[in-house]
Design goal:
Helix content is about 40%, strand content about 20%. The chain has 17 helices and 14 strands. It has helices at about 10-15, 30-35, 50-60, 60-70, 85-100, 100-105, 115-125, 140-145, 155-165, 170-175, 195-210, 215-230, 235-245, 245-260, 290-295, 300-305, 310-325; strands at about 20-25, 45, 70-75, 105-110, 130-135, 230-235, 265-270, 285, 335-340, 345-350, 355-360, 385-390, 400, 405-410. It is globular and about 65 Å long. The chain has about 400 residues and is of the alpha/beta class. Helix 3 crosses helix 4 (about 60-70), helix 12 (about 215-230) crosses helix 15 (about 290-295) and helix 13 packs across helix 14 (about 245-260). The model has no long low-confidence stretch (mean pLDDT about 95). The strands form 2 sheets. Strands 6-8-7-9-10-11-12-14-13 form a 9-stranded mixed beta sheet, with helices on both faces.
């Protein structure tokens, strides 16, 4: 592997704890590369991109599993859901004959269509599978930094700021190029027409396998509209009018983007003890800023710096990097946003171990106390607030008041 993936340790632990390890993630985030790593550990590798192998699996799933044995890696498992029941039967047989521990590590499965995978898992592999969600590269993985779950420890964050290097040019290049591994693997040179081909393949293969769409052009237009909302609350009624389909269709199409790992939805934060006049809408984030930039026509760092979408894309980048620090370390993080009817906002609220971290995400470099006025809305929270900060494009840590610092994005 060209890039050392932080999540590899979590995958190894999962293999040791479950009979089946399922690696999900968007197309081209590196699932196959990670799974192939275990060929050197005694696993046989097969891919259902090979239509001949896929045909044999569909024709006789039981015989297929028996012939290949285990340990076995199956790439693109969603193309043959018939195998789930046979994998379950094989796991049960090994557990019965040799004991529970002997069955661990029998299968590694990968796939990009979470909905079909989860349906098969819930029906056949409950209690037998460990699920790994793989994200695009993190800034830590790309730059060779140690990646740990984000935690507000001022000394640690200032130390990161001192030992890491990331200027504005590097940041805007990462945002516009995106963080799919293939974008960086050929001596750092981007692949021509990468996202044009990515979009076509995604719609023609992934989306078309999930639902029947009569007008693919409308779905593509829908994706471009959603990309323009990244980092913002979205309104299905408005999107419906722009795209020209009904609300029910828009809702189902957003679900497709979620289950195929293209976007993440952030829910509003709520507690009985705080202001009840909160907004009920949700925010949406593209999981790769490069893909979002392509869809809304931002073709270079220079274009991004001048774009009205700059703030939203910087916020999207910060959201994604915060999320990756937890997911890549095997932690299921609870992240929310706060906004009330008085226009008080907090971009990210991280709830972990009974404590809250409050984070504002900004594309600027100069801030005052008005930039953090939303933090006051959680003074009556039932939880302990362990950190409040702005993550932004400042060059060095900057004190806002006695409790809040503005921190460079490289601190994540």
């Amino acid at each position: 592997m060209k890039f050392k993936r932080t999540i590899l340790n979590t995958i190894i632990n999962t293999i040791n704890e479950y009979p089946v390890t399922l690696i999900t993630g968007a197309r081209q985030v590196g699932k196959t590369t990670l799974a192939s790593y275990f060929e050197d550990k005694g696993y046989t590798y097969i891919s259902f991109d090979d239509t001949e192998i896929l045909s044999k699996a569909k024709e006789n799933p039981k015989k297929f599993i028996e012939n290949y044995g285990y340990p076995l890696i199956i790439d693109e498992i969603q193309r043959c859901k018939e195998l789930f029941i046979e994998i379950e039967n094989n796991v049960n047989e090994v557990r019965k004959k040799e004991g529970t521990l002997k069955a661990n590590g029998m299968y590694i499965l990968t796939g990009s269509q979470k909905f079909h995978l989860m349906k098969g898992v819930s029906e056949s592999l409950s209690g037998r599978v460990g699920i790994i969600e793989l994200e695009p590269l993190s800034q830590a993985e790309l730059n060779g930094w140690k990646e740990v779950p984000f935690e507000y420890s001022l000394d640690t964050l200032i130390e990161k700021a001192e030992c890491r290097k990331l200027d504005d040019d590097d940041l805007y290049l990462m945002i516009t190029r995106g963080l799919y591994p293939a974008r960086w693997e050929i001596e750092g040179k981007p692949i021509n027409n990468y996202y044009f081909n990515y979009l076509k393949t995604y719609i023609d293969r992934d989306v078309s396998e999930l639902i029947a769409i009569k007008d693919l052009h409308k779905f593509e237009n829908f994706m471009r509209v959603i990309a323009s909302y990244t980092g913002e609350e979205y309104n299905i009624n408005n999107i419906s009018k722009v795209v020209g389909v009904d609300n029910k269709t828009i809702s189902s199409w957003i679900d497709i983007l979620i289950v195929s790992n293209i976007v993440t939805i952030l829910n509003p934060y709520y507690e009985d003890s705080i202001n009840k006049r909160i907004v009920k809408s949700k925010k949406i984030y593209f999981n790769d800023t490069g893909f979002a930039c392509y869809l809304i026509g931002i073709d270079s760092p220079r274009t991004l710096k001048l774009s009205v979408f700059k703030g939203r894309l910087v916020e999207t980048y910060i959201h994604n990097e915060l999320k990756k620090t937890f997911i890549n370390n095997g932690i299921d993080v609870q992240m929310y946003f706060y906004r009330d009817n008085n226009q008080n906002e907090i971009d990210f609220i991280i709830l972990r171990d009974g404590s809250l971290q409050l984070i504002e995400a900004k594309a600027g470099k100069q801030f005052g106390v008005n930039s953090i006025k939303g933090f006051k809305q959680l003074l009556n929270t039932n939880y302990n607030i362990v950190g409040q900060c702005i993550i932004c494009t400042v060059d060095e840590p900057l004190r806002i008041n006695s409790q809040v610092f503005a921190l460079p994005i490289r601190c994540i």
